[in-house]
Fold these 2 entries.
Entry 1:
Amino acid sequence: MNLEKKIPTRNGFGDEIVALGKENKNILVVDADIGKSCKTGDFRKQLPEQYLNVGIAEQNCAGVAAGLATCGKIPFVVTYAAFGSMRMCEMIRQEICYTHLNVKIACSHGGVTPANDGASHQAIEDMGILRTIPNMTVVMPADYASARKLVRAAAEFDGPVYLRFTRDAVPVIYDEDEEFEIGKAKKLRGGKDVAILANGDTVRLAIQAAEALAEEGIEARVYDFHTIKPLDEEAVRSCIEEIGRIVTVEDHNILNGLGSAVCELVAEAGCGKVKRIGIQDAFGQSAPYERLLAMNGVTMESIVAEAKKLVKA
Amino acid sequence: MKENLSVVELQNTCIDLKKHVIDMIWKAQSGHPGGSLSVAEFMTACYFRYMNVEARNPRWEDRDRFVLSKGHVCPAQYAALAMKGYFPMEVLDTLRKEGSPLQGHPSMTKCPGIDISTGSLGQGLACAVGMALAAKLDGKDYRVFSAVGDGECNEGEIWEACGTAYKYKLDNLVVFVDWNNLQLDGSCEEIMPPIDLAKKFEAFGFEVYQCNGNDMAELVEVMDKALASKNGLPKCIVGKTVKGKGVSYMENQVGWHGVAPNDEQYRQAMDELDSQYVK
């Protein structure tokens, strides 16, 4: 991980979608007037015949994409996570998921990364909401390199995918040749004392926490759960059976996100303990991104503290 | 391929279609007869005069599309599809039953000939716009026909979709507004005044035609014109219709929005429709 080199994961989307569009003319971008901040500017310039903008009309945007997909197109609907999950929610359910159409909802401004935009733009519920819709796949890459790979994987996947990116810059974790598979968690570190399962922009915190724990003789296993649906149940079960102590970390409400998904499996297994670290079911405010995470206890220090509590219990 | 029936042939085909509507809703003891009957003439004209489709190849990529934005009146579309040969007529008897391709609201993954699933009002038109847009992007000449309800025009997404249709010059899109003036809870005026739907669509950039939507001759006259007009403007046919048209006791009755006839009402409806065939 290179803490010095920080890039927003929305840039990974913006760069990869241009490459994909050049390879396949059926790949379209459907913007809703926030394309510039979702990084579709290059696509718009370089591939104008594959670029659509329906204005500030998210419900229609999802419906138009569904209609395009019935005719063999692969539309990427582009907006902010708050709008792509909630303003479009029922259209995604009725016209994209129920119909199992090949539409991708690609959203910047995931989690609290819209920071100074305030609570209206911070999406803390989105992955949980979309996780409950049948046929939907829900993905949040951890860094720029994995964003590019997972955008490509989503384009190659036949069916609806929700992709969530950060507005703010996050450290680069992976080499550009690292491979990713939708639904398969990435093991970043082996360990037998505690498991730290994170996704998106919090994966970096999980890695730092594991390094700090190692200095105290605690070996943490770290996973990047870039896909929360379908959840990599095998990876979760191995953590339950081999360790039994799990800390989940996410830039999302602790309700219904990665932590909840892991708890569901732990409860069904009937053994193991979980501590969920995430947004504490409360709306945010305009503040720096790192401060908003800290206000909710989403820090390297709290991951270390919670891991130690579980190990000592 | 297109059937291109004459007005008289269409009138009689429409009565067949309406009889299937009544029959299947009676057998299911569930469904929406009022709107299915008000939209029946448009449905018949589309499938038996205008649409270039192949029942044996329902996903043929160059076919004309039909989007029933007011999805609850699907008995009318199911009847048309069965009559065209998309599936055997007996399938109509399974409407709304467990395991049936004929869901209470249309499902594209279950029923051949359904181009997009609908049922949640206000959403179908945007999908129709997406299909028409795909034709333009690919330089193809297929058309997209869509039926929208007057009550459904309460939904904001309808007007969002109109904006996209205008912007992308979708003159391959024909929207029929089934203005029967009744919605579920009461008259349109009482629930949400529609003001002038023709003026509204015109203001949103459509080329608008108006007619008695239950008069096949008038409907065919305006549809012929709308389809001949290739000027970059999306087309809208505002059809003044009668909810329950063709069955006297259902006509203009808000109570017949989503209720099935009993045995006696069923016989009367079928007798009345039988008497309407044009010799």
Note: The longest strand of chain B covers residues 173-179.
Entry 2:
Amino acid sequence: MKNRINKLFQEKKERVLSVYFTAGYPDLEDTVPIIKELVKNGVDLIEIGMPFSDPVADGPVIQHSSLIALQNGMSIRKLFDQLKDIRQVTDIPLILMGYINPVLQYGVEAFCEKCREVGIDGLIIPDLPLSVYEEDFRSVFENNNLHNIFLITPQTSEDRMRTIDGISEGFIYMVSSNATTGAKSSVTDFQKDYFERVNLMKLKNPRMIGFGISNSETFRNACQYASGAILGSAFVKALEGTDLLEQKVSRFINSIVTES
Amino acid sequence: MSYQVNEKGYYGEFGGAYIPEMMVPNIEELQHNYLEIINSYDFRQEFVDLLKNYVGRPSPLYFAKRLSEKYQSKIYLKREDLNHTGSHKINNTIGQILVAQKLGKHRIIAETGAGQHGLATATVCALMGLECIVYMGAVDVERQAPNVKKMRMLGAEVIPAVSGNQTLKDATNEAMRDWINNPVDTHYIIGSVVGPHPYPDMVARFQSVISEEIRWQLEEQTGRENPTRVIACVGGGSNAAGAFYHFLDQENVELIGVEAAGKGIETHETAATLTLGTPGVLHSSRSILMQTKDGQITEPYSISAGLDYPGIGPLHANLFTSKRAKYLWATDAEVLDAALELTRLEGIIPALESAHALAALKKLQLKPEEVSVINLSGRGDKDMETYLNHFGY
């Protein structure tokens, strides 16, 4: 079967909207309801966060949601259980995002097989470096039709970007600035240079910009330089509070996609 | 069998660099340059000069007569507690600040548990006129207050880490986040033999001066280069790495690390990583960790802030797995007894961390002709409040 990520980017070249949330937050059983609401509101791609006790690449918002999710009892086992019928709910691409240690403890092969079984299309594991991926993970990922999504940053050398482009399938996650997730930002001159520099490289993979995308303005700016953008911390923050999940999700997505 | 790091950054199956892409430029820069820098003539000159004239090396190797009488064996103390700033940590910070300068970095960050590494970092930053930011768990900021005051007087900014258990692991997370946010002009001085390659090897090399000195000092004093055994406490494991380093290939020298058992290895309040842990990845290297079956890191506990860490350097994980070194543990209560014993027998108040190594004496069957070297990694000034509360003076 064709990977849903590739299908998405073939059909949609611009303003692709990807949203991240932490599984198990705010409540343990919110995973499927959040996915349903995101789909209903027209999101193109969903990144489901697998919480980890020590998320070094994340800022305070996702650190907090991870902590609460773990306290709620979230685990990879529990998540797969929640996702077992998810392909009866939606056909948009689903990506799991998390740190390497819980995956290692689950067992890499078992993890990848389970991903295929429930219908996961890709993985983002920030602390799985390129070299280790190629040596120890690539074949098992590919055997299970899972795309590993690599990150590039303003500091990534051109050579390395080309290497990453060569090994990538699906899309490249373009980190907008030198930051952990959730940093406040608008598009600065420095970022503009970086975005334009990467544009000129004519990479074969589509690019999605993430980190610091938090509102309609930053979403629109990011979309000028890439196929689309990823919202994480801003959405997780929007899930706080006592309103109905349905309201929180639709209010947030509307605030992003509405042209101001 | 080699116990040193291989060209890919592994000790056996442990080590490596499990870093997010954001850290790749800095780590690759270090990987490509650290050996050339630290083997260069200029660097050696400066490093040796500072260790001698600024730190006060060589630190004495002291024959502890009354302690030896008590245990009916020959016990020597390697007096790292007499170094400038009061512990072995300064050996590494001197080395790394010189590396940072050669790489053109202007801003230094560090994590600290007991504050000894933070203090040693703040000290070399003052010495070199570099900006210094130290991350320290909020709990440790409280329990190691004297060191916090010293760091601030030295001009460092001490930022309390308020996530997790607010101890060393959390301070390390915050320091890594800082580096991700400041990738260009910042060098991260990791204080132990942990973190991504090349840190474990680089820090072990800077600390290896400890065992280098032990060998010639012991020969000078006894006519033999090799003791029967070397004993050191282990949290991340930097003082033990330094004390073991030149004995790793001397297979007849017994190497003993002592972990912090906290309230006991049967309780949840412990930091005895090798005794209780399983393989996994934390702070960018594969080692042995205290974790749940789901791979979430367990919050550790020890009376000693410097050993209150759920991981251990990959070098030690390999020495443990290959059985080259033996790892014991000591509880808080055993450690306090050992600290008081040394104080009363030798007039030396040890750091709580170092007292773990001393507590091993009761767990070993020492023979009269045997020579044991204990690495006394730090002094007890910073722990006076804990000691006073416990002993009630």
Note: Chain A has one domain: 16-254.
